[in-house]
Structure formats: structure tokens, C-alpha cells
Amino acid sequence: MINEVFLGISVGGWITIIIMFSIFVVMAKSNIPAEVSFLSALTALMVLGIVTNEEGMAGFSSEPVVVNAAFFVIIAGLIQTGVLYWLTQNVLGNAKNYGWAIVKLMVPTSILAAFLNSSNIVSLFIDAVNIWSRKLNISPSKLLLPLSYAATLGGMCTLLGSSTNLLVAGLYFNKTGETMDIFAPMLPGIILTIIGTILVVIMQRFIPDRKSSEVSFESTSDYTVELLVPTDNPYVMGTVEEAGLLNPKGGSLIEIVRYDREIVMPVPKDEYIMGGDRLIFAGQINDLLDLKRTHGLAAADHHVWSINEIDTKRRMRTAYVTFGSELIGLSMNNSDFEQRNNVALVAVARQGHRVEGQPRDICLAAGDTLLLECPSKGETQLEENNRRSLKFFDSQFVPQLGFKTVLSAIVLTLMFLASSFHVLSIISSSMLAAGVLMIMGCCRINDVTKYIEWDLLLILGSTVVFSVAITKTGVASFVATNVLEICGSNPYVIMAVMCLLASVVSEFISDMGAAAIFFPIMYQQALLLDCDPMPFVMSLMLCVTLSFASPLGSSTHMLIYGPGSFRFTDFARLGIIMHIILLPVMLIVVNLLYPI
What global pTM score does this model have? Predict the structure, then answer.
């Protein structure tokens, strides 16, 4: 039945199309993690017999997955030995003006992104860029968007700079048995990076000026207020809920400090009030001070927390709600997040402005900035437990620079040399480098797993199989043949049309998903036209990465969405212009370097 043909496509092909479409609908309309959607689709393909079990599992042992896994270990070594810390502290200098600041940011960032993966570079540079923006007295958004562009453009220059590049190279190897050179996309990537940098500098007025969420917090000197419970207060020995103190007007009770210095945080609704308790409230200070009158509370000596005064037993941390976070659409009152993580929400900012009202009543959205009161210990575990929901950018980890720092840098350099001169394959050199770093103690083996982005590996493994399914069911051949009938047999026209479609699709879904869908189609078109597949493959690799007009299609845009207090439409202002200019430039350059 699966092989029966309906409207020119087999039943199995129609099932594959429906499954592919369903993935992107689920990702767009729900908070289900992307890897769950991809794995569910993979399971459906295997259960329905579209792909065999062997084909379904082969994706997870493919080159893109193995190389990415090894590279995560290498990144762990570079972080723990201080290589990346040294780079972030030394690549930024002093700038005379904003235009020069863009150049000084984008040039080193694009170079580093070519060798260390664009997403990792953006994550590492966000804090540094925020500090730099304060020195230059400009909004972080004015530098964060150029940072994202630089990382994306630079990541196109090598296979290791982008997971999408690795995916396409792996699919090419599966089709031809030929290993793509690690620097295969370097020349077109460099040209696009140079032109892209110039465009950003020239069109800097299109970069939105958004007030930073941190600034909105800093504009209020006090975040919390401390009130004392007198021993003769009528609410003593009653619960905080019964007393109406858990969520009073304008705020919420986030902590109780007992007379014996015991700290109750977060505060359960059935917690008893005792004489001498210090109640810590977060919210609107003026409303909270009314509790002195309405509940017979007394003013304490001082407000216990401010942005410049934090008790050594607690620490203020800033986190951003990620796309697909389980917290989207929920308030802390409707979630056990605070209890599970032993934290308390103090304030919420959205698009650069502090949200008025009780923090724990605010319904959270993607990109919201949360000011959290956290214990001073267990920061690493807090970040690891919530990596799907929150992104922290204020880590205080400062590595010790020394012999292992130099050793890690040497290992990374030798890995690239071995790959570029074909001494070893990419997969062999990356696995060897990861092994050496672990053996030499440059990365602690017990901590390596927290640096591995398992969700990315699962998505990579699944997308490889989707490409197999599209080819196996005849969908690729059907689409390729019909496009040729509509557009004619001119290979340049076909390439341009397919790259335009792929780049537009990548604006709404992940660039890896777009690459996996369009690779078998474009490869089949090259064969039907009796052309060398390489220019088709290279153009696809680059065009799906040029998704600058929305945060959904770019992993680096998604990383800066919260820290920059961006609005969803902010990326389209400059992104559409970049897309329109860089796409034809890419096609011209690829066809000059890789003649059809």
C-alpha cells in the first residue's frame, strides 16, 4: 500500500510530506521541544515502514552527529581551561564611534565563529557586549544584532562553524561517498561575510534601539522591601495565606528570614508567621509599604536587596525565557518552578521595560527577562536543570589561565591543520582532539555532559533520516522533475528558484530542517540536468543560513532575542535587506567558484 501512487507521489511519499509538515506546525503552535517533535516524526516514519529500523538509527551515527558531539567536548575543554574566556576578554578594544565599534565587534567575532561554532560564540560574547555597550553609552541591541550577523556569516566559512554546514556535508557524503573539505565553503563565506559586515555598518540606522531589560531593573534602586513582624502582631501563628501576605497588592512574599537566621525560600502558602520574622516582598515598593498600615508590620532597618547590595548568602541573577520554554504562558503562581529550583522571582522585564504588578502573577512570554534571587551555591546545577527553559548570561565562572590553556589552544589548532591538509578526516580529527583534551585533564570528564547539547544531536540525527525518507519515497524525484518542467532546463534558473524557496522556508523553520528537506531535491535536480552537484549543494548550504529576517530561522538571533529586548519584527527591518542583497551575491560567487 505504501508504494501505491496517488497524484504522482506514492502513499509513503504523502505520509512523509504530512509528517514533515506536522513537525513545523507543532514547533510553531506549541511549546513542545523541537527534539521531541523530530523524534516523534522519526518514530512515525519507522513504525509506518517508510524507513527501516537500520535507516532510522543510522542518522545518529552519521558524521554530523559524531563531529558535533566531539566538538562539544572540545568546547568544554576550551571553556574550562580559559581559552574562550581569554578570547572574550581580549578581542574587544576601544572604539571611537558606533560605526567603528560594529567593525571591531564583527571582524573578530566572524573569525572565531568560523572555527568555534557560531552559537557558542554568541553565547560567550553576550555578557561582554552588554558591558561594552555600557562603556559606549549605547543600547545593547545596537551591538547584539551585529554580533548575531557576524557569528552567522563567519560560521558559514567552515564546516565546523555551523551545524547546518556539517549536516549538508554529511548528506553529500551519504550520496557520493566523497568527504567535503572542512574549508570548502570558505571563499564564498568570506566574501559574504565581508559584504554583510559592510552592509551592517552602512545600514546601522536600521538596527533597532531597544532599552535593555537590565537597565529597566537598574532604574529602580530597590527591588524588594523588608518588613518586620512585631511579636504582638495578630497574624502571628497564622499562615501567610490566611494573613493575605503571600500575594498582597503590588507584590509577592518571596522569603522569610527567621530571628535565628533561618531562611524560608520560596515561601509555601501554609508557612506560619512568627514574631520577629523579617518578610521579604518583591514588587511595587509603594504598594508593599502599605502593609505597615493594613497588617501592622514594622519597617526594618533597610531594604535588604538592591542591584548594588546583595547578601553573601543570596545572589541576583538574570535569565531569559527561551523559545519553546515550558514557562511560556505560565505565571510562577501556576508553576512549581521556584520550589523545584529553590529560587524566587523578584522582577520581570519585557522588551526593555519592567512589567508592573505582582511578579509571580505575570504570564511569561518568550524573550522575557527574569530577575531571580538564587542561592550563591549550585549555580551550575541550576543552569543545567533549566537549559530548556531559561538562558543565564551572568555566570561568574572565571577559569585559571595556565599551561592547560595553551595546551587546549594547540590541540584545537592541530585539529584544524590535520583536517585541512587531509591528514585525518573531520570526524577522526575532532574525536582525537576531544580524547586528548580529556586525557590531559583539560576538561573534567564528569562535567563534559553538561556542555553537550543533546537536543541538537537528536535533531541532527533525525534530519539525516528525513532526507533519506524524502529520497526513498520518490518525493525528491517528483518535486525535482516538476520544477524542471515549470522552470525549464536552465541550471542557473533552477538553482536560483530552489535557493530562494529554501531560504524563505528557513526563515520560518530551522535552517537544518530546510537543508534536510531541500538537499535530496536539489541533488536530484543536478543529476537530471547532468550537472556537477557541488554548486547546487554549496548554494543550498549557504542560502539556508541567510535567514536573517526572523528569530525563528536563526539560532543566533534566538540567543540575542531576550538580552537585546527585541521585538519579533525587529529582525525584519535589516534582515530582509540583507537577505535580498546577499542571496544573489551568494549565487554569483558560488557559480564563479564552482562552475556548473
Answer: 0.73
